Amino acid sequence: MSRYAMVLDPARCVDCKACMVACTAENDVEVGYHRNWVRAAVKGSFPELSMHIEPGQCMHCDDPPCVRSCPTGASYINEAGGIVGVDEKKCIGCRYCMLACPYDARYFDEESGIVGKCTFCDHRLALGQEPACVETCPTKVRVFGDLDDPDSEVSRLMRTRNTEKRLAHAGTAPNLNYIID
Amino acid sequence: MSDNSRFSVTRRGFLGTSACTLAGLTLTGCESGGLRFFSDAEASEPGAGGSYEKFSVCANCVNKCGIKAKVVAGRLKKLDPNPHFPKSRSMLCAKGQAGVQVLYDKDRLKHPLIRTGPRGSGQFRQASWEEALDHVAEGLAKIRDKYGASSVLFSSTEGLQEHFFREFSAAFGSANHVRHPSLCLASGNVGFFSVFGTVPAFDVANTQYMIFSGANRLESFITPDTIDLVDVLEKKKAKLVYLDPRYTVTASKADTWLPIKPGTDLAFYLALIHVLITEELYDKDFVARYTIGFDEVAAGIAGNTPEWAEQECGVPARQIREIAREFAYHAPRSFIYKGRRTSWTTNDTPMRQAMAIANALVGNWDREGGLVPKQSLRKGEVDLDVWPPLPDQDCIVSMEEKHPLANAGDGTYLDFREKVMLDEPYPIRGWFVYKQNPMHSLPDRGLTRRMIDKMEFVVVTDIMPTDTAWLADVILPESSYLEREDPVVGFQDPYPFLSMRNKVVDPVHDTKPNFEIMQELSRRLGFPEFFDYKIKAMQRAQLEPFGLEPESLEATGMWSDRKERTYGKSLKEGYRFRTPSGKIELASERFRRRGYNPVPVYEPQDAIPGNQFKLLVGKNAYFTHASNQNNPWLHELMPDNGLWLNSKPAAQRGISNGDIVRVKSAVGEVEVRAIVTERIRPDCVHLPHGFDHISPLMSRVHGAGACDSDLLISREDHISGNAALHETLVTVERIGDGKEVHA
């Protein structure tokens, strides 16, 4: 079995948005929608300032409310790796999942009438490639891998760095981990 | 770009001797690019509807990073980074990823266009290549016959097919060809060249201490520096001191951000040198062995104490001392970074020279973690044994008189425009523009517009219907970097290697590579012998010295005979630096001979009047100059721009975030949304470059935001002639809230 996860280091992120455009290209995401994002926040007054930059996307939760809220079973957890997916054949576009997701990680594609979201580029994983956002990142903010493999880079980082999860109190057990040290 | 592609061949040697290039100082303009190529085992031919992968080289900015193109059923599906590529390694930025839309954007130029209505009316008709090329040849010949060949001005920007255009202008017989470096990094090059006789790379990956002035490397990417910079900062292997009136992303990652008064960086560096010398922190052995001019520098900076500098630049004297000491402590694993920006003030070259001098004083030259002279692989050439005619006239700008230390072959753009407007010393009535958009890249867009009105015939070759193309008589659509083959490219950073740009797919529209355009026009104009070869033959000739064939590069998309950066060659006994003395010149003999101060001298900056702001230019990571704001995947990241204005002066003027303001300078005014922010000094404003395109054919950014070139006044650095873009003062007034104006 695999348990896919990411470890992200916001200190390395420069808000260049290469990950967003790579995802658009890789997954044919229509202009106007994105499956991932980079957010920057500046605090303080000139000249005492700080900036926090952080990328995000579907957290591929272990207990995803999007899956629980889906009336048709379109949203599901893929047993192989724990990737949260949307079965396009079953999705009726009701958007309950979008309301349920605390991360606002899904969008409704008006063209296709179904919900879109990050897939961890599972089609690339099948070819032994990394997700497009991971591969293209100029400063290597994201590390992707299998937490069930103790020798993987994500496992090593989880052992050696202090990390936290976003909106942990929402209780969804997300699989994106942000380095904080 | 680095290399010698411009002067690389015996045949190409002629470019160095045209009328504009008498000074013959072959400063490298920018660093240079590479090539591309490669196909995998199951490759099918481009355009055959096949599916395959190919290595190639990006062209969405000057870096030329390595890419791997995935083509499915004849259509480019995706661009991935080429992990084998030493310069960019496994990265591709947003601009590179958006390269797919360079091919498929509905707005791109799809066929030749000939203007049918008044200039600026937008009335064009589609033409065949035969007709368009005939029309261009006739138009150029008409100007040549009426006024002389030099009455056609040629201008161009770097790229792997630019040198064909330069050969074309020389073969045509024009003395007037102006390139981009005087809108780019000319002053930095002249400054560093004066000291070291070359323009070095910076060993970011191995350094411990860096000082950057306005080099916003985390938003204005240069590979591999950007990659290495984030890595050494995040791992706390190195410290960064960053001087910039704006709080950029680079500022946010720096250990120390100094929001310096704009244009006063030279005061900071002179004081830093003052501390190095008076506290004897410099490397005495290095200075004695490798340099001349120490005493002159020491005398020159005698009055430039940190206390004096604090008055000028606003950085506390105590902090200048600390920085100087730390810089010296970490030497040779420390450096002051050159940057690649335009000039800021008319005294910019001495500022860059001072940076170079401070580097030399601490002995970080050609050492790990310091400054590293670039090395190249010497490519072969196609030897055609043809020589261009002597131009019928002298160049309209006498570089020898005006900017004898600038790269004469590049020219100085603002001087050219001034001479054209004055019809001095003779009229320029034709303009052939390749891969350049002077309507955005020159300060004072109104003046550039009037310059175009002086012309009887304007031709633009580009891939997009730019604002300059919009005003042309004929638009020639070039095949993009994904649809053509380019010559072999040599890279220098982090170590010398070769690459090639492959044709990834067949041209999507009725376009031609510039090389073919030059071939066709040269045939019509009577000098076909200059282009009487094929790109493939050129590639073979270029690779021959290495025992390589174009196919040799297919496996990894690059080739090199080394694996890492090396150091110390120029420190060996008997090495002569390319300076008049053969040594590192702390006091420049080259400058002295030309009547300039041999050591940098500060010119005080006028105080910014209380009711005005200094306008700062700058970039972000989504766009290259004004070239790709219209790309649909980049456009959605930032659909327009706004004026950065500090919250304090905004409050005084009753301006809230999102309000529409009128910004006025001595040459123009714009109306734009205000972005009220803490991220800029209260006496400065900033307008991101590259918006408000006048061409309606750029459908997404036509009229979007405001254009900094409408406001920028025309000033140039005295020595290099580089456009000085931080000399403009503006007023800002509220004219309404966003809704009112947009409604």
UniProtKB/TrEMBL annotation, chain A:
Domain 4Fe-4S ferredoxin-type: 4-34, 49-80, 82-111
Gene3D superfamilies in alphabetical order: 3.30.70.20
Tagged with keyword Transferase: no
InterPro entries in the record: 4Fe4S_Fe-S-bd, 4Fe4S_Fe_S_CS, ET_IronSulfur_Cluster-Binding
Gene Ontology molecular function terms on file: 4 iron, 4 sulfur cluster binding; metal ion binding
Record flagged with keyword Metal-binding: yes
Domain of life assignment: Bacteria
Keywords: 4Fe-4S, Iron, Iron-sulfur, Metal-binding
Pfam family, one: Fer4_11
Protein name, as recorded: 4Fe-4S dicluster domain-containing protein
Organism: Candidatus Polarisedimenticola svalbardensis
From TrEMBL, chain B:
One function term, GO molecular function aspect: 4 iron, 4 sulfur cluster binding
Required co-factors: Mo-bis(molybdopterin guanine dinucleotide)
CDD domains xref list: MopB_CT_Thiosulfate-R-like, MopB_Thiosulfate-R-like
Signal peptide: none
Residue ranges the record marks as coiled coil: none
InterPro entries in the cross-refs: Asp_de-COase-like_dom_sf (IPR009010), MoPterin_dinucl-bd_dom (IPR006657), Mopterin_OxRdtase (IPR006656), Mopterin_OxRdtase_4Fe-4S_dom (IPR006963), Mopterin_OxRdtase_prok_CS (IPR006655), Prok_Mopterin_Oxidored (IPR050612), TAT_signal (IPR006311)
Recorded superkingdom: Bacteria
Matches recorded under Pfam families: Molybdop_Fe4S4, Molybdopterin, Molydop_binding
Residues covered by the 4Fe-4S Mo/W bis-MGD-type domain: 51-107
Keywords: 4Fe-4S, Iron, Iron-sulfur, Metal-binding, Molybdenum, Oxidoreductase, Signal
UniProt similarity note: Belongs to the prokaryotic molybdopterin-containing oxidoreductase family.
Protein name per its UniProtKB record: Molybdopterin-dependent oxidoreductase
